[in-house]
Amino acid sequence: MPRDWRFATPLSLSSAPVSLAHVTDPTRGVLYPDRLPTFTRLPPRESAAELVSWFWIPQWDLPTGVESRQPILGYPAANLAVEVDLAAADGETPTVTSGVTLWGATTRASERVLRGSGWAVGALLRPAAFARLADSPGDLVDGWVTLGGPETGAPESGESTAETLRAAVSEAMPDVDAAVAAASAWLVERVGGPTHEGRLANAMADLLMTDAGILRVEDAAERLRVSVRTLQRLAHRSVGLSPAAMIRRRRLQEAAQRVRDDPDASLAAIAAELGYADQAHLANDFRTVLGLTASEYRSGV
């Protein structure tokens, strides 16, 4: 993670796209990487770089009766996913389910249970896109809606319909590059270019998700040259979480990765490195969000 950004000048709000894909470990947020099915993470097309941080594409083909549990500590952001799932109980005819889902940001770890065979093409949305796809991002925290349903409040017409997205991505798969191109084009058509506020929200998310030197909301507000209150309102309107919650999620993702990747590092040292007041605060974050202690997580990896 880039630690020298804390000394940089305030982030630019120009139209130049800023992608997080090149600064983010592909397993960040994945609590048990060894359990992953085939998993690909790709950057968006340049035209959609202000709308999507990256695309994530799992593919799986499991024997009948076998399931794969995938615990995830998600990024403080929304996801748009096209999913096709072919599953069957023993001796039954497989049932195909597919759809387009808009998932809000999460406040706790989640789990997906994979069965049968299938794939998903998901986009980790940048705030500029999410604010245009959902009337009230805060209402989707820890929840989801079918895109185009009455809950989203966003009208659909022509090439921007969710069915158009589902069909285009389904036709492209298993060519993941073609699927990313199709989804990128759909998002540009559906969302359009970001507003000035959308670009400010993107800069906020980039800062909070990548800069380990940002430990307080006041630090982020100063870097972005806005008031703390403005930053809080911006986060609520474009992400649904508070800036403080976004900082805590980034730190917990980093902590989980350190606990997993460096078995010799003490929990006290990890807590100090990541700016926790003490080991007890790190332990409390693990219990509250993951439902287990850091030691239990380390022993189960």
TrEMBL record:
Claim: ATP-binding is one of the keywords in the record: no
Domain HTH araC/xylS-type span(s) in chain numbering: 198-300
Pfam families: DUF6597 (PF20240), HTH_18 (PF12833)
Keyword match Transcription: yes
Keywords: DNA-binding, Transcription, Transcription regulation
InterPro entries, alphabetized: AraC_XylS_family_regulators (IPR050204), DUF6597 (IPR046532), Homeodomain-like_sf (IPR009057), HTH_AraC (IPR018060), HTH_AraC-typ_CS (IPR018062)
Molecular functions (GO terms): DNA-binding transcription factor activity; sequence-specific DNA binding
Name of the protein this chain belongs to: AraC family transcriptional regulator
Gene source species: Microbacterium allomyrinae
